[in-house]
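Q: A reviewer asked whether we had any structural model of the full assembly, not just the individual parts. We don't, so I'm hoping you can provide one. Inputs are below.
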Amino acid sequence: MAELNKLTIAEARDGLRKGDVTSVELTEACLAEIDAAGVLNAFVHKTPEIALEQAKAADARLKGGEEAPAMCGIPLGIKDLFCTKGVASQAASAILDGFKPEYESTITQNLWDAGAVMLGKLNMDEFAMGSSNETSTYGDVVNPWRRGNETTPLTPGGSSGGSASAVAADLCLAATGTDTGGSIRQPAAFTGITGIKPTYGRCSRWGVVAFASSLDQAGPMTKSVRDAAIMLEAMCSHDVKDSTSVDLPVPNFEAMLTGDIKGKVIGIPKEYHMEGIPAEIEALWAEGTAMLKDAGAEIRDISLPHTKYALPAYYVIAPAEASSNLARYDGVRYGHRAKLGKGDGITEMYEKTRAEGFGDEVQRRVMIGTYVLSAGFYDAYYNRARRVRSLIKRDFETVFADGIDAILTPATPSSAFGLGEMADEDPVKMYLNDVFTVTVNLAGLPGISVPAGLDAQGLPRGLQLIGRPWEEGDLLNFAHVLEDRAGFVAKPGKWW
Amino acid sequence: MSIDIETARKVAHLARIKVEEDRLPALAHEFNDILGFIEQLNEVDVEGVEPMTSVTPMRLKRRVDEVTDGNQQEKVLKNAPDAREGFFAVPKVVE
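A: Here is a predicted structure for the entire assembly that you could use as a starting point for your response.
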């Protein structure tokens, strides 16, 4: 089998089971690619010893009597937000410099139990706060895609930018990501890969560094919809260590990829035709709609009237939760502690530690969160935002009750932009990246980004499908049909 | 609602983040940009709408009130910047 690092999970699984390839061979191929791709800055902590040990164990298991799980022997990259025992896990923040957890996140444990292999930890925006992977203590991640023959470095999106870049550049077969407002789907769209955020509660949040607990969900970032189905199944579980983890059986998602969507109803929300969205994005959306119609789905115009208020509500709720969650970084129990001056007490220790340890965007959000939760403003900002959130969720419940099976939208308002291009803009401009994705987190729904074509500059563009709660299987099937019809096979030319 | 330099200083202190004096005007300006964006929420009629407490309609599970974990002092202290004699060490708190 040629170029093992380029395989999909499904191809590798089949090859491993047939004995055409070993996990050690797959792992060594990926490790070599990672070493040669330092310029992308995707992998920030490499774990070759762990990888080869896991790969050997996977090969032994594959030779054993029982059929090994689908993920057995598959080399993965893990976002730095996941706690991995004995391996640096610092959410791309200087405040967690040197932190090596004494425990393993439930999701990564599920993956290792299924026989998967950890190649290392992946770069991201600090504490998952960002849309361009420019807020990381490890530095920017570079998108393997370029505009035509230009050499301008582009963002892979964020916050799961390292995951997106690594999968798009074939440094690993797939990666874990997390999504609080679009952090799986936007980078997937910017790099021509598939990314699914499952229903809130499908994946355990235990051991995943918290940003905004009522919105955070993990999911896979993969080279195909089939791979997303395989890997998502391995990640999901009911977990008593996460009180919001759902106690529902995890279906065989791959078996639900029938390709048959005849008679299903796809909603096209009119509020997503937003001012300032490039004509190219509108055209892509229309093409995607036509593909689903051609596959036998009924297309229906729908209204989600509170869409406009999703981002403002998000920028109250997410910072509020972040300010509470990030209170734990105080220089006492783990990570960085500032050097103290003579006479400095515990308050100075907190203040200096957090000023040194948190980057600008994290500081900004923690302070916004502090403000909207402070006495006198709690009702005006925080409670109002939570009321608006109820209305946003109700919008979706209404259309689902009216018979809509899934909703098709663009994934992002633009293609990948240049690193540094947004540096002088006000923070709100960057927040608009999540305008199509953030509603899904507020409503707790599953959403998937599927690569659907290239723009005039040769950059990938994605479409988003939004599903009913807990019906990731149906959602993946819609995505599978879209993927099949769009026929996206482009890869970035290798320059790194 | 407009945030002045004094409010920015107060918020930074509440958040326990040291912000140098010369950074405060820019910080206040950024807060105002973000809060200006958030103000859009005032257009929405939220009369009679309950604030969301849980995005999925589920009851939190109960469990037996018993010790399930413990005796991990070494692991708990392992990542501390300053641990002594089985404790986290911090600057003097009580005069």
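A: Points you may want to mention in the reply: The longest helix of chain A spans residues 378-401. Residues 1-496 of chain A form a domain with the Amidase signature (AS) enzymes fold (CATH 3.90.1300.10).
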